[in-house]
Amino acid sequence: MIYFGKIDKKADKIFWKENLALRQISNNITYEDYNNDGIKDLLIFEDTGGRGGNSFYNLYLVNPKNHTLTKVGDFNKIVNPNYNKKYKVIVSYGLTGTNYYQLYKLNKKHIPYKIGKPFDDTEDLDLDKKIATILKNNNPKQQIKKIGN
User: Fold this and answer.
1) pLDDT value for 143
2) Can you say how many angstroms the Cα of residue 34 is from the centroid of all Cα atoms in its chain?
3) Shortest CA distance to 43 belongs to which of 149, 119, 133, 35?
C-alpha cells in the first residue's frame, strides 16, 4: 500500500493511498515532470520484461494545489519511458531483437496515445531530427491511437 500524507503534531492526514503490486527494488520511486507543467510527477517502477532490459512504470500526475495524484491509465504499458522536454513527448525505447522507439503524448484525460509509428534504433539515427519529423508530419486526427493498437 502506498500512502501520501502529512505528519503533524496534532494529527496525521492521508491525502491519497493506492494498493499496487510492485517488485521490490531499491530506488523504485522517482520524481520527473511528465506533463510539462513544471511540477515533478511520481514515477513508480512496476516490473521488467525482455530479460530485465525493459522497465515498466506507473505514473501519477501531481496536483499540489488540490493535494491529489492522478494515475495515468495504461502508462505501465509504455516500455522504458522518458520525457523529452524539447518536444513535449514521451519517448519509449524497447529492447527486442531490433531495438525501437515509439512516441507518446498524454491527452486531456491523461491517457497516453501513440504518435506516428515505431521506428528502429540504427547507428546513423539522429533521434532529435526523427522526433521533429514525426511531429511535423503527424496528423492530429491520426494521433489518437490507444496503446496496444
Assistant:
1) 47
2) 7
3) 35
